Recover the amino acids of this structure.
């Protein structure tokens, strides 16, 4: 399973491709591609958004679904989804109560 | 302090205007990210995991109170209320919006600061001894030469597209506090037998994937030949440095592959052609730059000893701090103060806007308006009257920056690691925090004595792990963090690269491993005067390996 992560051009905020190809600022709202066809589709949508200067650093991220929530396989992407593990008061983890890496 | 002249002001303002235009063109879509990325990097704008990062140059780590206040203001207004001081004596903000960065750069330009050449394959911020101009053991102040190199290297047309980045460090004392032997060029300012100033020149040091200690290629280079000789080195590197593989593109690889003798011959040949060129520094020019760094007119304050000894008796906390964080000044009435950014369990190198403002106040009131950033990620007040040390200490206690640990086991260098950095493979800061908490008590730290732990979250080694007495490198293995330990590194004169001690440790094991290493040292040292590094050099890795892994061998 994969999702698309990127950073918003204007402020660098980490965002994910969500339903309707809209960029969402919480990983919980990311669209999860469950087959190769959907993976190719979201990758293309990410590339299109890069070309349209909406986001930068578009990456496909491997995820699992754990207890109903999207959990990236790599720690890097889990920290990216939550915020710095050393500053629980800063970043998305403070705003969204997103699942935290640690 | 060096002050911008009209040319400097115009140069920096023009650069801000240029970048503002580039950002506008990027936001409008006129520039693609591929086109914009090299432009933003030239202005210190990186992209990290959570946001952009802006790295601001602090030439040779020197700041005025006004500049520090401006950094505090930027932290408060455009970031999340804190900044991170780095091992290159710079400051990083981890959360700026791209749309705000032109305004931030304007605000920096107003106080004679910028972010030029804090990234890219160019000559980066020139670093220097953080006690420059104050230390009792200094032959001469290295900052005028660092400033000459800064001016010469800023937008140098020939050296703007080097094979890879290029870092120069300068020290003016035998005791190397600027880690010059692990820089691309290290300059040791000294006097020859006739009393003339010049440099021992080291080339090809560096950390990262292939750590190397620099080779000395000149024992004494007269000061007027500084730019000719450095130009000669850079020309040889620019021509012959590898561009086919970024991991082999630093000058250390060129020195290694060419051989020190042959490389020196090439540099000397180039130098012979340049020696009498316009690069030769006129004595008047050197002396003119020196006037910017003239020693401050420090008033006699002979009451210091009495004032200090009175408080030492009454306040053990002050006594500890005095012992560890006050450094000998050339004027016996004064001291250089290390403001530790390594509070127990805190993030190494971070300071809040409130703390930055308070440091600025202290510098103005007690410190001759000077602040330094050390490559060890602390702040320095270089000129404080000993009589004022109790007042400075009291204020530092108030703002949480009075930890008495300069040079001790909790004075840990750590890169931002995977908590921020897009290049990192593992976290550095939580490891530093846990070790700091494990060794928190003053008595235990004092018992251990001088011990430098340095932690990097990837092989690029921003946390200088190769030259830590205990170095820790975070790697990713099978999707989890793993920490490799090296022992015996040193960034002082006669630098050494630490040796990998054995298999790595999981996050929950690494602090125990450090404690085992420290306990082994305490058990094996000849006496309290034998430091960890001295003991390691005497004993070698065997007893540490046995302590860390012996039980595994027995079990097998």
């Amino acid at each position: 399973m994969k999702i698309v992560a990127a950073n918003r051009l204007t402020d660098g905020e980490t965002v994910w491709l969500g339903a309707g190809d809209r960029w969402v600022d919480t990983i919980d709202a990311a669209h999860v591609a469950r087959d190769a066809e959907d993976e190719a589709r979201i990758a293309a949508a990410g590339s299109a958004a890069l070309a349209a200067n909406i986001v930068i650093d578009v990456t496909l991220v491997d995820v699992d679904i754990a207890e109903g929530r999207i959990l990236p396989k790599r720690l890097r992407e889990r920290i990216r989804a939550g915020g710095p593990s050393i500053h629980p008061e800063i970043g998305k983890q403070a705003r969204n109560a997103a699942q935290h890496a640690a | 302090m060096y002050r911008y002249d009209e040319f400097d002001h115009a140069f920096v303002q023009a650069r801000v205007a240029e970048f503002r235009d580039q950002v506008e063109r990027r936001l409008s879509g006129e520039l693609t990210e591929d086109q914009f990325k090299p432009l933003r990097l030239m202005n210190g704008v990186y992209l990290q995991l959570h946001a952009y990062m802006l790295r601001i140059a602090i030439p040779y780590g020197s700041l005025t109170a006004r500049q520090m206040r401006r950094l505090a203001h930027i932290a408060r207004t455009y970031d999340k209320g804190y900044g991170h001081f780095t091992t290159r004596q710079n400051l990083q903000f981890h959360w700026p919006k791209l749309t705000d960065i032109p305004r931030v750069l304007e605000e920096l330009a107003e106080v004679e600061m910028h972010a030029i050449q804090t990234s890219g394959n160019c000559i980066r911020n020139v670093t220097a001894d953080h006690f420059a101009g104050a230390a009792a053991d200094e032959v001469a102040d290295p900052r005028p030469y660092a400033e000459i190199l800064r001016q010469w290297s800023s937008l140098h047309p020939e050296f703007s597209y080097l094979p890879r980045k290029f870092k120069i460090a300068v020290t003016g004392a035998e005791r190397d506090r600027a880690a010059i032997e692990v820089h691309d060029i290290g300059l040791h300012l000294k006097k020859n037998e006739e009393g003339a100033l010049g440099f021992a020149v080291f080339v090809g040091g560096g950390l990262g994937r292939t750590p190397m200690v620099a080779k000395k290629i000149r024992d004494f280079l007269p000061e007027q030949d500084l730019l000719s000789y450095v130009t000669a080195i850079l020309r040889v590197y620019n021509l012959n440095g590898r561009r086919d593989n970024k991991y082999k593109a630093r000058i250390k690889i060129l020195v290694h592959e060419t051989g020190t003798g042959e490389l020196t011959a090439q540099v000397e040949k180039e130098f012979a052609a340049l020696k009498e060129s316009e690069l030769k520094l006129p004595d008047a020019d050197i002396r003119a730059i020196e006037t910017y760094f003239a020693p401050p007119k420090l008033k006699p304050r002979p009451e210091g000893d009495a004032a200090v000894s009175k408080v030492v008796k009454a306040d053990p906390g002050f006594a500890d701090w005095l012992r560890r964080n006050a450094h000998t000044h050339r004027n016996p009435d004064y001291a250089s103060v290390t403001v530790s950014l390594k509070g127990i369990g805190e993030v190494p190198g971070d300071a809040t806007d409130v703390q930055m403002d308070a440091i600025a106040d202290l510098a103005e009131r007690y410190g001759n308006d000077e602040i330094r950033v050390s490559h060890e990620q602390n702040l320095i007040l270089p000129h404080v009257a000993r009589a004022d040390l109790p007042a400075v200490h009291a204020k530092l206690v108030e703002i949480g920056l009075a930890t008495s640990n300069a040079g001790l086991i909790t004075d840990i260098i750590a890169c931002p690691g995977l908590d921020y950095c897009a290049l990192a493979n593992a976290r550095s800061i939580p490891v530093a925090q846990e070790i700091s908490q494990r060794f928190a008590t003053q008595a235990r730290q004092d018992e251990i004595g001088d011990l430098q732990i340095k932690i990097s979250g990837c092989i690029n080694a921003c946390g200088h792990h190769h030259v830590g007495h205990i170095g820790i490198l975070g790697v990713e293995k099978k999707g989890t963090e793993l920490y490799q330990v090296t022992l015996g590194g040193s960034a002082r004169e006669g630098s050494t690269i630490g040796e990998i001690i054995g298999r790595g440790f999981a996050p929950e094991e690494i602090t125990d491993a450090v404690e085992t290493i420290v306990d082994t040292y305490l058990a094996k040292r000849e006496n309290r005067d034998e430091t960890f590094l001295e003991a390691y050099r005497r004993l070698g890795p065997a007893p540490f390996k046995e302590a860390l892994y012996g039980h595994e061998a027995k079990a097998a």
